[in-house]
Amino acid sequence: MSQFKDLMTPLERARAMSAGQPVDRLQCNPNLSNGIARISGCRISEFNHDPRALADAVIATHRRFGGDGAKVFTDLFTVAEAMGAKIKFPDDDTADLLEPAIDDVSRIDELEPIDPEKACRIPTHLKAMEMVVDEISSEVPCTALVVGPFTTAFFLIGVEKMTRLMVRDPQSVDRLCQVSLESTLRYVDAAASRGMGISIAEPLSSCTVVSPKHFRRYAAPVVGKLLNHIKDKGMGTSMHICGKTDGIWEDLADMGLNALSIDNVVPLPGCVSKVGDRMKIMGKVDPSSVMFAGTREEVRKACLSDIRDAYRSPKGFALMSGCGLPVETPIRNIDAMMDATRELGWPITEEKLEKALAIDRYDD
């Protein structure tokens, strides 16, 4: 369990930060992903049909760790599945893509935007959102993690085919992105109507997957429309993109993104210096070699190092893992991550950081 106690709820902390008022510590969100099943004691597969199981896991995770966000999410394929993709459902692991919705561009017109109130597993998610909002929204910001339209478009026809189409058939890519966008907007509307905030996962917008040129040509138009749609609701949003993103940081800032969650392969000081004055930066502790495989002290030192690199970021910094944590990440390592922010408190100073980095708090 945690060695330290919070003096504010996550919601109180978020509101105080927005108003420029004093807070008790830096924001921290370990991003457990489907590891939340381990906290509530259910199988991951239960999330696919039991909204109570999904909601209970989100709620139990919030109450166990006190992270600065409660996220309803299971996998990257809920919208793609609702549009016809076939999904593999392990009993106790994360769902995966089995077969895209279509096998050829000649079938694009068969794709229809979803009805989120009826589409496959999405009603299960929406019901879980209602439960989460009802039970913990007075304590913590609650968000629906929505898969972005560019990423979902890949799952409609397959990653390899989509990659080839960007070179050979731009119009088909645009059509896939547009129908994907319409489904995404409908999902956003349904989640927002339940009182949820919105965050976005756009892993295939990564510069590791597509060039910045192709991002600007294909992803930026639909991602920008999604951000504007959310902004029109009076809401801000964050986005996580896996892998390298330095080639599109300024593009994302130009779109009006409020907060960017970066992968552990990204240089945090470079991100802060380049766009930290335009959006909040979140990240980026290594989810595998540090959070999953490291000792508590290795977790603590990695967190303190990231805080040192980014706590002065003009638009703010939140400590997070660089991507979703592996399901079996040790609970004590998650506690160590949360406690790194509690140990420092607020305001953070160079003296506090150097003193904390100079000592070992854990002996395992």
Note down, in words, how this protein is organized.
This protein is an alpha/beta fold and 364 residues long. It has a domain at 31-261: Alpha-Beta Barrel (TIM Barrel). 47% of the residues lie in helices and 12% in strands. It has helices at 10-18, 36-40, 51-65, 78-82, 122-136, 149-157, 159-168, 170-193, 212-232, 249-254, 268-275, 287-292, 296-310, 331-344, 350-357; strands at 27-29, 70-72, 86-88, 96-99, 142-147, 197-201, 237-240, 259-261, 280-285, 317-321. The strands form two sheets. Strands 1-10-9-8-7-6-5-2 form an eight-stranded parallel sheet. The chain has a two-stranded antiparallel sheet with strand order 3-4. Helix 6 (149-157) packs across helix 7 (159-168). It starts with 9 loop residues before the first helix and ends in a 7-residue tail after the last helix. The mean pLDDT is 97. One of its GO terms (biological process) is porphyrin-containing compound biosynthetic process. InterPro entries: Methanogen_methyltrans (IPR052024), UROD/MetE-like_sf (IPR038071), Uroporphyrinogen_deCOase (IPR000257). This is Uroporphyrinogen decarboxylase (URO-D). GO terms for molecular function: uroporphyrinogen decarboxylase activity. Residues 10-343 form the Uroporphyrinogen decarboxylase (URO-D) domain.
